[in-house]
Design a protein that fits this description.
By secondary structure, the chain is an alpha/beta fold. Helices cover about 50% and strands about 15% of the residues. It has a six-stranded mixed beta sheet with strand order 7-6-8-5-9-11, with helices on both faces. It has a three-stranded antiparallel beta sheet with strand order 3-10-4. It has a two-stranded parallel ribbon with strand order 1-2.
C-alpha cells in the first residue's frame, strides 16, 4: 500500500469512529460470578453496542477500583462516573434508602416490586439532590438465616456475633439479643473462621459465593427482605454525553432492571439447591421463630416510620394501597 492509500485508509477508519467516543470506569462490589455483576457486564455490552462504541463502560468488579463503602461517594465526586452500591448502605445518611431492608415489610418478589414502585420516585429525588442519577436497581434473593446449629427460637441467637452489613441488620441483631459486627461480603469466610462471626442473615447467592457450608451447617428460609443494589451515575457526567448516547444508556438500564429481577428469581432457586448439594441443611422456621421475628419486624417498621418522616409515610401508604 502506497503512502496515499495509507492516508486514505486512515481517514476512512477515523471517520468510522464515534465522534464523542468515551470510556467510563465502573466500580462494583461483587465478584464476576455474582449475578449482579453478570447483569452489569451485559448492561455495559448493551451500551457499547447501542452507541457503536461511543460509550465504553469498563466494569471493575469485586471492589478492585473502590471498596464498597467508597463507591457512592466516588461517583458523587466524579472520581468514577458510574458505580453500583447496596441501596441500604446509605440509610445512615437518609432513612428512605433503607426502606427495602425493613424486615418482613416486603417478603416476596411481588411485594418487593410493589415497594420499589412506591419508593423509586423519592429515591431518585434524594439522589438527584446529591448530583446523582439512578439508572436501575435489582434485588438480591430474600435474606435468610445461616447458623451452625438449627435455631428454634430467637433466644438461640442470644450473645452470638452476628454479621451486619447496614443499619437494619445491626438493629435486627440487637433486637434478637445478638452482637452485630460489620463485615463486608468478601470478608465473610475469614470472619467466621476467626470467630468474628457466628451467624448471619443474607441471600443464598452470598451464601454460595462465600461457600457458607465451610463454616455453618444450617440455612433457615426466612425471605425476611429483598435488598436492592442500585446503579448510579454522576449526573454531570451523564448530562455531558450526547443526547443519543444518554438515551441508549437509559434504554440499556431499563432492560438491565427487567433482566436483573428475572435473574434474581432464578438465582434464588438455583443457589438454594447449591447449598443443599454442598451439604447444608435447608429448613423452614419454627412457628416460635416465625412469630418472634414477625414481632421484631413490626417493631422495626414502626421505628423506621418514625425516622423516615412524611416521605416514608407516603411510601408505605402507596405500597400498602397497591
Amino acid at each position: 500500500m502506497n503512502t496515499t492509500s495509507k492516508i486514505l485508509a486512515g481517514l476512512v477508519a477515523a471517520a468510522a469512529l464515534p465522534a464523542t467516543a468515551e470510556t467510563w470506569d465502573m466500580p462494583t462490589p461483587y465478584g464476576d460470578t455474582v449475578f449482579h455483576t453478570q447483569n452489569i457486564t451485559q448492561f455495559a455490552e448493551d451500551v457499547s453496542e447501542a452507541t457503536d462504541g461511543g460509550l465504553e463502560i469498563t466494569v471493575h468488579s469485586a471492589g478492585s477500583l473502590f471498596a464498597h463503602p467508597e463507591i457512592k461517594d466516588a461517583v458523587r465526586r466524579g472520581l468514577a462516573p458510574i458505580g453500583e452500591t447496596l441501596m441500604s448502605r446509605l440509610e445512615n445518611e437518609d432513612p428512605i434508602f433503607g426502606v427495602d431492608s425493613v424486615p418482613f415489610l416486603a417478603a416476596s418478589y411481588d411485594e418487593a416490586e410493589k415497594l420499589w414502585e412506591a419508593s423509586r420516585p423519592v429515591i431518585e429525588e434524594r439522589l438527584a439532590g446529591q448530583g446523582l442519577t439512578l439508572l436501575f436497581a435489582v434485588p438480591w434473593p430474600g435474606q435468610s438465616l445461616y447458623t451452625q446449629e438449627p435455631v428454634e427460637s430467637v433466644s438461640d441467637l442470644e450473645g452470638t456475633s452476628f454479621r451486619a452489613y447496614n443499619a437494619a441488620t445491626e438493629r435486627l441483631a440487637t433486637l434478637m439479643g445478638a452482637v452485630p459486627t460489620q463485615i463486608e461480603t468478601g470478608d465473610i469466610p475469614t470472619a467466621f473462621a476467626t470467630g468474628r462471626a457466628d451467624a448471619m442473615i443474607t441471600s443464598p447467592s452470598t451464601g454460595v459465593s462465600s461457600q457458607a457450608w465451610d463454616f455453618v451447617s444450617t440455612y433457615t428460609e426466612l425471605e425476611a427482605w429483598l435488598p436492592k443494589n442500585m446503579v448510579i451515575v454522576n449526573t454531570a457526567a451523564f448530562e455531558g454525553l450526547p443526547e443519543d448516547v444518554r438515551a441508549a444508556v437509559m434504554d440499556a438500564a431499563e432492560a438491565a432492571e427487567a433482566r436483573g429481577w428475572e435473574m434474581s428469581e432464578a438465582e434464588t432457586e438455583a443457589q438454594i439447591a447449591a447449598l443443599k448439594e454442598n451439604g447444608m441443611q435447608v429448613v423452614q422456621p419454627s412457628e416460635t421463630l416465625s412469630s418472634e421475628l414477625a414481632e421484631i419486624g413490626e417493631t422495626m417498621t414502626s421505628e423506621w416510620l418514625e425516622t423516615a418522616g412524611e416521605d416514608g409515610q407516603a411510601v408505605i401508604e402507596a405500597y400498602r394501597s397497591e
